[in-house]
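Open question from group meeting: does this chain pack into something compact, or does most of it stay loose? Before anyone orders reagents, we agreed to write out a predicted structure and look at it together. Recording both the input and the output here so the notebook holds the full record.
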Amino acid sequence: MSWLARLLDRVPPPEQRMAQALAAWTSGDYGVALDLWAPLAHEGHARAQSNMGAAFLQGRGVEQDHAKAIDWLQRAAGQGDAGGQRNLAVCYYEGWGVPQDHAEAARLYEKAARQGDPEAQDMLSWMKLVGGGCPQDYAGARFWAEKAAAHGSAAAMARLGDIHHNALGVERDATAAADWWGRAARLGHPEAQAMLGAACLAGKGVERDVVEALHWLRRAEMGGAGELAAGFLKEARAHARASQRAEAERRAEEPLQ
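Structure tokens returned:
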């Protein structure tokens, strides 16, 4: 065996190098990850190209450079890589390194969403709900939110609660709304916590429970949704005894389960 053959025989396969790079990236060793991804990206490996683009986009391990990010992401997206399509969509949505184009962003998000990318599914759902970059489509918004929610997206779950609460393309269903808000609330989504608290206070879709209402409203307030929760909190406190307020505070301080 020649020296070149022996050298090449010692080079780990691309899958192993990708796994090593991901482990390094996850642990914060961005330079090591980039050293592993770069040769693969230049060889045409789509996921490595996508990851190089994300690194330049975020400025991790390299100086932030939107032009270089776009170059790598376009290469990855052109090969059908879902992560590359999603990150390229972000660039078009925000106008990073390319002219802002929400229609192109929606097109790319949909490509990634159809490949099962949860973040793309969530964003596409939101864009279809508000009609941003694509026609308003409540059925499509619900469809993609359900897909993202199945992957554990709290934002998508909260949106499904809003869709059922506001009768957006569906019959108004307080029980379904409270159920979706509850799922998102237990994952720490502040706005969903506020809406679940309001539902508990009014007894809509769930049993009326002032302690649970206060509990979720306090979590929402502590999580940054104080403006949304404020009015409901005031009402809940007015209807609660001191012992109930104390119990709600105790629950709000406990870790989510």
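Observations to bring back to the group:
The chain has 15 helices and no strands.
Residues 3 and 9 are 10 Å apart (CA to CA).
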